[in-house]
Specification:
The complex is a heterodimer of chains A (about 700) and B (about 160). Chain A has about 700 residues and is an alpha+beta fold. Chain A has 20 helices and 13 strands. Chain B has about 160 residues and is mostly helical. Among the domains of chain B are: about 60 residues, Orthogonal Bundle (Helicase, Ruva Protein, domain 3), CATH 1.10.8; about 30 residues. Chain B contains 6 helices and no strands. Chains A and B meet through α13, α14, α16 and β4 of A and α1, α2 and α5 of B.
Chain lengths: ~700, ~160
């Protein structure tokens, strides 16, 4: 009964979203105000309707209404209520509904803003954003409906999933559900999908404004960029958090000692992050210098398409992957939508291309404008390399008929060098002036960071001569670190001299006065820390594996692991736990007990490895219980990874969030800058009047 | 100041390098250990489970394949012989790193081509940005009246 209400609300939401798309598009095209207003109202009602559907689905998951196929698939009696709730995004049907719901929520925020600011753009913003929302609700209604029920057709051996009762069928109520995939029962996987989806849907708004600007031919004023600046930052923040949480989840749960495996689904999420990062930087040059306008359109269009592509890959399992928990017939529809929006956006851009003018020129190839352009190109090159490597197995299968694998070595070799150049740009570019930069002056500014980083890296490689390649990465990392800190120090010193402030106050005021700039530097520091994690993972990781009996030891580097005993006991959530007790020693001194585990989820017949981890800032000792002899509990096989610097990845994630917050929110008494430009247009009726 | 700094820099770098030469290492276990097996398994992908490297895959099939690698190592096979064996048995898809010949070479080639195109494009854009400046200068010059035109106008005025 309740599920029927959810279904009805979902169907109504679909038609309203469709209506809103058409009405606001038509109203904007013919300049017919009542249609725009009506389209906007429809958009405002779509969200509450979807909320009803979402709440009912969550209620069904928590109260275990197993007549629904989705509930039977991802919820179960053994699961704690909290996990039942997160099952909303634990499967395909639920996550598509969740996507649509978030998107509709963002449209409400946009539709409720002051309309006089962007009166011309908003009808088309609604057209694009509601069009996207309608597409996702449509998927939810017609292709993978979360309210579909389980039926037993007479004589059939399998249950049928359908919304309405098939002929000769009886409703079927399962006793218990399958429950959430055990791998997903982890805080990282609880936070990862919502943050990722917030990031994904958040970027639809800047895209919608960009397309609106293209439709109206308002390509030369920056209104669309200024209006969506905060949206962009917000979406980028959540996308970044989503990436870090996903990495943390992989590290804790997948049991291979790493956090980034260049898996197609990970890549699919990295791709929009790359173009979005390029976009985030390149809008600055348009705001400050009125250049790179066409690039910005291209970048936001790419970001939107790659977001759809990311959802497409994750949700359709077109490229086989460990992440593809969800597979279905979504493929063709999704593919068509991506193609349609991409071709449509690009043709709109081409139509406007002649009008796009650079407002400024540069005096030298060596200028900040050039650095930005180069950075953009590098980001697009990495994007292409990762995209190409991700889809190449498919291409190979289609063209030659043989399947192939493009694994981590490819991505490390191709993307690694490009990322290093980007990191170096991060050190140099902030010191480069607009228009023209004298090389001698730049060299002077960067002299100290350069010298100190050179000393540090030479020192390092002397102690670790077995990893010559790491000397370069260490030089790079310390150089970027020092140059960013140097930039902070220059500002603080200037304030201390001129304003007589103490260092702390000077730092606070420095950031407060120019929060976008220094927030950006803090984000750079965070990215650098994440890069340190990647470098530790690529160059310094060591591992060992061996079968040992109780009392015996396994050695890796300076660490020794002693096997003490093995316990078996039943755990919560329907699992049987096999836990090894081990003692970790460093240089012969006892550090602590580690308890690597193997959890067997009985219903799903699936084992999950839970590592025992000793974590420090310098390195993690990551112990896995990977096997035990059949005879008894006297002997087990362990795998130990020593993962240097991996903790910095998570710390970097936190620093990155802080940096974005500093950049987005002015500190101190600084007046909030208006995020859009007010333009007076007194003759047209205000859209607020009748609402 | 500069010279002293440079000297200190060179001296410290020299010292560090000297230290690295003195460093000793090398510890060996009986062959083939789990680590020897994993070192090779790392370069292979499980042919059954999608996108899982052989050294971390937990299925029975993969355990058997690792046991096979161990036997081959014990018999004295080299790493490349073992890799070739697996490619011959299960196809190119078992290799983690795509080969650099045949159709697979495209996966390596394209990113390089795109990067080169990107650099060319950036150069081109920077050129137009600089050229844009020059055009604007000529436009502003156009607003100034050329001397010969001024002379002609004055001449015509006189004739009137």
């Amino acid at each position: 009964m309740l599920a029927d209400i959810g279904l009805i609300a979902l169907i109504m939401a679909f038609f309203l979203a469709l209506y809103s798309t058409l009405a606001s598009g038509y109203g904007g095209w013919k300049d017919r105000y009542p249609f725009i207003q009506s389209g906007r109202n429809a958009a405002l009602i779509t969200f509450p309707l979807l909320t009803i559907s979402v709440v009912i689905l969550v209620y069904s998951l928590v109260s275990l209404d197993f007549s629904l196929a989705y509930v039977a698939d991802v919820s179960s009696r053994a699961m704690a209520p909290f996990f039942r709730l997160t099952a909303l995004w634990g499967g395909q049907a639920g996550s598509i509904l969740f996507w649509a719901w978030l998107m509709a929520g963002f449209v409400v925020v946009v539709a409720r803003r002051k309309w006089d600011a962007d009166r011309e753009l908003l009808p088309f913003v609604l057209l694009v954003a509601m069009g996207t929302t309608a597409f996702f609700i449509g998927l939810s209604v017609f292709i993978d409906n979360p309210f579909a029920r389980l039926w037993h057709v007479e004589g059939a051996s399998k249950l049928t999933t359908a919304i309405f009762r098939p002929e000769n069928a009886m409703a079927y109520l399962l006793q218990d559900g399958n429950g959430l995939n055990p791998l997903l029962r982890h805080f990282g996987m609880i936070g990862h999908p919502p943050t990722t989806y917030l990031g994904f849907t958040g970027f639809v708004i800047p895209y919608a404004f960009a397309i609106a600007a293209l439709i109206k031919g308002k390509v030369n004023d920056d209104a669309w960029i200024k209006t969506t600046r905060r949206w962009t930052l917000f979406a980028w923040l959540f996308l970044s958090i989503g990436l870090v949480l996903g990495g943390r989840w992989a590290y804790d749960v997948l049991g291979w000692g790493g956090f980034w495996g260049w898996d197609p689904v990970e890549n699919a999420m990295l791709l929009p992050w790359l173009t979005a990062t390029a976009f985030l930087h390149s809008v600055m040059i348009q705001e400050k210098r009125g250049m790179l306008k066409a690039w910005n359109f291209i970048l936001i269009i790419l970001t939107y398409s790659l977001i759809l592509f990311g959802t497409f890959i994750t949700r359709t399992g077109i490229i086989d992957s460990v992440h593809s928990f969800a597979k279905s017939a979504l493929g063709p529809v999704f593919f068509a939508f991506i193609g349609f929006t991409f071709i449509g956006s690009i043709s709109l851009l081409l139509r406007n291309l002649r009008q796009l003018k650079s407002e400024n020129e540069i005096e030298s190839f060596f200028s900040r404008e050039a650095a930005f352009l180069f950075q953009n190109m590098l980001f697009l090159a990495v994007t292409f390399a990762v995209f190409w490597g991700t889809i190449f197995p498919m291409i190979s299968e289609v063209v030659t008929g043989t399947k192939m694998t493009v694994g981590p070595p490819f991505f490390k070799k191709v993307a690694g060098p490009l990322f290093s150049v980007i990191l170096l740009l991060m050190a140099i570019a902030p010191f480069v002036a607009w228009r023209r930069q004298k090389v001698s002056k730049l060299a002077n500014a960067l002299l100290w960071p350069f010298i100190i980083s050179l000393i540090v890296s030479t020192a390092w490689v002397s102690f670790h001569s077995q990893h010559p390649a790491s000397a370069f990465s260490l030089w790079m990392i310390s150089f970027v670190w020092l140059s960013i800190l140097w930039e902070f120090w220059r500002g603080i010193r200037a304030r201390m001299k001129n304003k007589n402030e103490n260092p702390l106050l000077a730092l606070k005021r420095l950031i407060g006065r120019n929060h976008r700039r220094y927030g950006g530097y803090i984000v750079h520091l965070g990215v650098l820390m994440i890069a340190m994690g990647f470098i530790g993972d690529s160059f310094f990781k060591s591992e060992t594996q061996g079968a040992i009996s109780v009392g015996e030891e396994l050695q890796i580097g300076r660490y020794t692991l002693r096997f003490d005993n093995l316990l078996q006991y039943p755990g919560s959530d329907g699992r049987e736990i096999l836990e090894a007790s081990t003692s970790l020693f460093k240089d012969g001194e006892y550090i602590r007990r580690l308890l690597p585990r193997r959890d067997f989820f009985i219903v799903q017949n699936q084992p999950v490895s839970v590592p025992g981890v000793y974590s420090t800032l310098a390195e993690d000792v990551y112990v896995l219980l990977i096997g035990w002899e059949d005879i008894g509990k006297e002997s087990s096989t362990f795998k130990i990874y020593v993962n240097p610097l991996i903790n910095w990845t998570w710390i970097g994630g936190v620093v990155l969030v802080l940096g974005v917050l500093v950049a987005a929110m002015p500190l101190g008494r600084q007046v909030m800058q208006s995020s859009y430009v007010l333009r007076r247009q007194p003759l047209k009726p205000s859209l607020e009047m009748e609402g | 100041m500069r010279a002293r700094l440079l000297f200190a820099l060179l001296a410290s770098m020299g010292g560090f390098l000297l230290y690295s030469v003195v460093q000793a290492q090398v510890v060996q276990d009986p062959f083939p250990t789990d680590n020897d097996v994993n070192a090779i398994a790392k370069k292979l992908y499980c042919p059954v489970c999608p996108n899982t490297p052989l050294d971390v895959c937990e299925t029975q099939a993969c355990q058997d394949w690792r046991a096979l690698i161990r036997d081959q190592l014990a018999e004295g096979w080299t790493e490349s012989e073992i890799l070739d064996y697996f490619v011959a048995q299960y196809g190119e898809m078992v290799l983690a790193e795509p080969e650099r010949e045949g159709f697979s070479s495209l996966v390596w080639l394209f990113p390089i081509i795109v990067l080169i195109l990107g650099v060319v494009l950036v150069r081109q854009v920077l050129r137009t940005w600089k050229a844009g400046g020059e055009i604007q200068i000529t436009e502003s010059q156009a607003l100034e009246v050329q001397p010969e035109i001024l002379a002609r106008i004055e001449k015509e005025l006189e004739e009137m």
